[in-house]
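We store amino acids, tokens; thus:
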Amino acid sequence: MHHELKVVQPFFDALIEGTKNFEVRRDDREPAFAVGDSLLLREWIGFWGGPEDSTDEHGLRHDKGYTGRAVLRRITYILRHVDFPEGVPEGWCVLGLKEYLWMISQEFFSSKQKWLT
């Protein structure tokens, strides 16, 4: 199964740098996340439920939306509330990730989508 998710800064850069090898997500997908699934993690400008625009470190305004940068990862481990109720809130999960393809453009993914499923 393949899932496509938004990732905001600074979390997206941490994924690229390899310092972040997990995702904390709502566990509300149908079908549910499963070990072996692929995740297309797309950089998103703007925060969930936040303003319609944001500014970068130079004070330049950016409209809310995808930047075109993305990484592809495989789920290697899933920690759910049922596994660790003291640490994972109900309805959430922690996904352990492994690098699948380093960094891809939106155009590359579109042309290879059938290959990934």
Summary: The chain has two helices and seven strands. The chain has a mean pLDDT of 82. The chain has one domain: 2-116. The radius of gyration is 15 Å.
